């Protein structure tokens, strides 16, 4: 009996750890997907972007995106004829529970604004992504700059 308890005690925490690691990977993948989609657009793809990105968002960010489009990421993006592509290079879960998570996201952004000098820039940025689990899916609820305080 003592041997059985020892085996169960040894396997139990490991199984929980494996499950948590799987959940962590799931939220990181959803974060990467949503942030990449939100931060990638061209003037020619704005209508398609609404349909592609909307299902990856929730809450206030979804409402802001529906009303402002890419301007939630790059103010005046539409007026400037800007295009942007984003590649998420790393994510790290800061905190997580069953239906919410905060994820640190590192992104390489390639931004082109025809009226700017230089017209194209590649910028490395970091953001806090607030994720919410809605109907079994991790959705992006907020995206804030990383900074002091």
Structure description:
There is one protein chain. By secondary structure, this protein is an alpha+beta fold. It has one domain: Roll (Nuclear Transport Factor 2, Chain: A), CATH 3.10.450. Helix content is 40%, strand content 34%. It is built from four helices and four strands. A four-stranded antiparallel sheet has the order 1-2-3-4. The longest helix is centred in the N-terminal third of the chain and has 37 residues, at 2-38. The radius of gyration is 19 Å and the shape is globular. 26% of the residues are buried. Mean pLDDT is 87; it is low at 2-8.
CATH topology label? Nuclear Transport Factor 2, Chain: A
Strand composition percent: 25-35%
Low-pLDDT stretches are: 2-8
CATH C-level: Alpha Beta
Radius of gyration, whole Å: 19 Å
Q: Tell me the distance between the termini.
A: 53 Å
CATH architecture: Roll
Number of domains: 1
Main sheet specs: 4 strands, antiparallel
How are the strands ordered across the major sheet? 1-2-3-4
The number of helical segments is 4
Percentage of residues assigned to helices: 25-40%
Q: Which structural category fits the helices and strands?
A: alpha+beta
Order of helices and strands: HHHHEEEE
